[in-house]
Structures are given as structure tokens and as C-alpha cells.
Amino acid sequence: MSQFIAVDLGGTNIRVAYFPKAELPPLTQSKTPTLAPEGPDAVIERMCQAIEEQLPTDRSDLSIGIGAPGPLDPRHGMVLKAVNLPGWEMIPLKSILEQRFVCPVHVGNDANLAALGEWRFGAGQGTNDLIYLTISTGIGGGVIIDGRLLVGSWGLGAELGHMTVDPDGPICSCGRPGHLEAVASGPAIARRATARIEAGETSSLTEQLKASGSLTAVDVGDAAQAGDPMAREVIEEAAEYIGRHMADLAHAFNPEIFVIGGGVSQLGPLLFEPIERAVEANVMTLAYMMNVQIAPAALGDDAGLIGAMVLASQE
Amino acid sequence: MSQFIAVDLGGTNIRVAYFPKAELPPLTQSKTPTLAPEGPDAVIERMCQAIEEQLPTDRSDLSIGIGAPGPLDPRHGMVLKAVNLPGWEMIPLKSILEQRFVCPVHVGNDANLAALGEWRFGAGQGTNDLIYLTISTGIGGGVIIDGRLLVGSWGLGAELGHMTVDPDGPICSCGRPGHLEAVASGPAIARRATARIEAGETSSLTEQLKASGSLTAVDVGDAAQAGDPMAREVIEEAAEYIGRHMADLAHAFNPEIFVIGGGVSQLGPLLFEPIERAVEANVMTLAYMMNVQIAPAALGDDAGLIGAMVLASQE
């Protein structure tokens, strides 16, 4: 019987779990601060210690799955560059851990693994063709086609937040104009609300912006939940962009289900209802909506960790 | 040894070939006018007669592959609607032909099958991850991921020409705004040139437009080849849209090769050079361009027919 250590390496926390078999729940689980500014060597050492604390006595048939920020090369288990982890460039994570733990190590892009987790154990259970979008500080993606994770030729695929939705739109974090991430991520929502208030619109957020000097997507979401018309419009605009892009993705991938996770998805119906309207309004024919679900993610912060276990169990 | 009849059902011609094995060239091949206005029953009868003419005496291990215009449901071999074939709605092509010829029949979207043909025997031989775009009256697509054709949950995927490149752009043939097809297909190129001349720009095409009342993409391409600056700009604008969309597709699929076919691709370097510049300018990192080829299609009008044989041979 195979057993698995799963790792989710994030900019804030390193999460590690031990799965005696390819099933939920894990037997043990831990969360350690990443302390990313200390650099790759310190972070990797901290990750290895967290793994060691959960290593079973009998290590036969053990393999390790790791989710890490992209872009990374999953074939070679190499992190090419991790925006939230200072100093991480060309880090051969797979070979470092294989030498240390003398077992197979599999590395995947964190959003891709969250898609895999949601597909196998979360909102997408029982489907074959799934698109996952995580909408938070950035917008990440994952695609399952006929039960297999899309990674592409060099493992750089499924970057669904980095596709153009408005060529005249703002510059994205990646430097290119008008990507979905630039108009519909958490920071984009906060930026749009701030700009409207600074342009003179009145909103329940006006005082808050004056007092704190900045707004977050959570602030905008809270105001929208409380009925603030401007905040609602800002959320609806983001949802419209997301929904239109999902119609394009439906034409490209014709999925059975869209799973939407990440902090911004916590807005619930405020976000999902305008998304659904925008998808329906923008698909070529309603055949693309036949039996299609648009579902909130079910695994929360554990999606990537669980996906790392699924990755290791599939290899 | 398996043997195959391949059929490419187009709006203008029905092409049929007999392959004694899954290799090129076919032993026999024919082209019959579709006479689409006569309606589905007459077209299907004409197609069946063309097949019968090439049927081998020994029909053991025979299967038939058919490429037809989409949208269609490849699992059930059902043409949902074919824009160029009047009266074709919900036509169960697979079961009609299976009853008639008592052998397995496999049906695929024509652009998808052209992708399959180019991948197996054309410009994409030896690759695993391929994106095919055919740019002519419409813009069709096909995607090979890890050696498998992407069809999606209901077989409606890979409609890469029907993805938004400019939300404020013109309405597409499908009724939605700003798709690639609406700004970069042959008719879109002709429309842009016509509009510029009608707005008062001078061009070598001015007289031609006056004389004939309309322009085609071939006219614009000929003028561009002859050095007409306006015609060149129109081609470059289309190429810029195509290249930017290819960068988005690189982020989604991370392919090894883009294969570009269809009438407009005959423009050669006039089209391909600005496409290459636009792809490079719009990918997030040049990692997406590592070892990536952008190649003209190699099989010409035979791509779909050959792909129909490949489809039958894979099933």
C-alpha cells in the first residue's frame, strides 16, 4: 500500500500532511510559517524539518508530492521563479528532496494541484473535464481534461488568469496588458473601488479609505454585502470579466464544471450570480452550458495540499 | 490489418479516400461537389455513393472516419448544426452510415481532424502538444495535448477562433462580440480594407473596389504582396490579433508547436513574421517560446481527410 507526504509551499505558510493511503483525511497535518525573506536555503530546511516530523517509521512505498508557486517545470521538479518567495530562481526542488528523503518526489504548480484536489476529492468529484480558477491576490488556473491534469509541453500551461480579456485594460502583474488577473483579482477590485471614490463617487467606503489610506477586496466585498451600490457595481464588473472569460474557456475546453476558489470567491452569490449571467450571455450556443456546473471550491485552503497527495498517488 | 475510408464533408466538396492501412498515400481518392442546397438527404446519399465507389471487396477490419462542420457531438457522431450545409440540424451521421455500411464509423469536427492530420503526418509530426489554427472564411482550431485530441465534455472544445480578443470589436459570425474570427478571418481582412478605402484612404485596391463593388482577402493579400502600404497594414493588424491570441493560448496550453493553415496562411512571411513578433511581445516570459515552432500547415486541403483516417485508426 502506497503512503504519501503532501506539501503545500506558500508565500506565508508551509503546510505538510501525512496520508497513510490515497484517501482523506490525513493522519497528521502541520502548518509552519514560511518566513520567505530568509531565502530558499532556510525555507527548504524548514520544509524538510516539517516533513521529518511526520515521516512514518516504515518508509516503504512512500512518495512525496509538493505544490509550489509557478512558473515551474513539473517534469524536472524545478521552480523557475516564485514571485512570493524571494531568491527562488531555478531551484531543483525535486532533486533536493529526493536526495534528502530517498523516495520519489513529484512537484506541481500550486493552482494546478488545487484543481487536482478539487477534482478528486472536492467540488469536481465524479467529473472528467474541469476548469478551476482561484481568484485572490492573483488569478491561477488548473485544467483537467478527460481525468488528466493539463500541464503542457514544459509544464507552464493552465495560466488561465494570464489571458487577455481587454487589450486596452491595465497592465497585469506579469507585465502584459489586459489579462483577467489585472481586472478581476482582489487587488484589481480594491483598485477599481479606490479609483471611483477618488474620482468623487460617494460610497460607504469613503470614510474607510480616508482613514486607512487604502482599501482591500475584503472591504469592498463587505460593503457590497451591506448593500453599497458602488461596491456592488465593482464586484459585478469583476464578475462580468470572469464570466466572459469563462465563456471563452468553455469554447476552448468544453468542460463539465467550473470550480471557483480563492479569497474573492467567498463573496458567494454576489459574485457567482453575475458570473453565471455573463457566461450564459457570452457562449456561442447554450450547448456549451448543457449540464455545466459553476461551483464554489469545496476544499478551502486544503485544496493544494490534497492535490499534492493526488499528484504523488497518480505518478 | 485495419483499413479505412476517410471522408471530408465540406460546404463545397465531399472528399473521400481509401487507405488500405494507416499510412499515406491513400490507394484511391475522389472529390464530388457537395451541392449543399439540395439538403441533408441528397448530400448524404451523394456521400454514400462516393464511399461505395471506393469500398474494398474484402471489408473486414474496415472503419470509416468522417470530418464534418461543427458544432457536432463526436461521441454520438451527431451534427448539431452545420452553418455551410443548409438544413443540417441534429443529423445522426454516425448511425446513418453504420447502418448503411455495417462497420464502425467515427465522426469529428473538421478543424479538429485537420489538427490530427497535421500532427500525425504533417507539420506537427513528432510533437506531443500542438495547436492548429485554420484561418479562412472562419477561424477553426484543434488542440493535441500529450498526443490526444482535445474534444471536451460534449465534443465542442477547441473553438479557438471563438475566443474574445477585443470586447469592443465587431460582432462575430456566431453572434458574440470581438472573437478572433471577427477581426482576423478572410472576410474580416477584406472588410477592414474596404472600410479604409471607403473612408478615403488611397490604395492600389481603390479602383478594384470601385469596379467590382467588393474586395476579398485574396485581393488584399495580392496588393500587400505587391507592396501596397494600406494592404500591408491590414494584414499586419490581423496578424497582430492572431499573434496576441496565440500568446494567450500559449499560457493556456503551453504547446510545442503552432500549425497555421487555411487560405489566409498562404500569405506566407507577410502574415507569419508579424504573428511571430506579436507572440513574442505578448507571452509572460520567453519560457513559453522555448523550442516552440510556428509552422505553416503542410497537408493543404488534404489535412481534414487524412485526419479522418487518423481518427478512425485511433479508435
Percent of residues of chain A in beta strands? Answer: 15-25%
The beta-strand count of chain A equals: 13
Main sheet specs of chain A: 5 strands, mixed
Compute the number of helices of chain A: 10
Largest interface: A-B, 48 and 48 residues
Global Rg of chain A? 20 Å
CATH class of the largest domain in chain A equals: Alpha Beta
| Helical/strand content category of chain A | alpha/beta
Helix content of chain A: 25-40%
SSE order of chain A, as H and E? Answer: EEEHEEEEHEHEEEHHHHHEHEH
- The overall average pLDDT of chain A, rounded, is 95
The 3D shape of chain A can be described as globular
Q: At the fourth CATH level, what is the homologous superfamily of the largest domain in chain A?
A: ATPase, nucleotide binding domain
CATH architecture of the largest domain in chain A: 2-Layer Sandwich
- Residue ranges of chain A: pLDDT <50 for 5 or more in a row? none
Strand neighbour order, sheet with most strands of chain A: 3-2-1-4-8
Number of domains of chain A: 2
Distance between the termini of chain A: 14 Å
- CATH third-level topology of the largest domain in chain A: Nucleotidyltransferase, domain 5
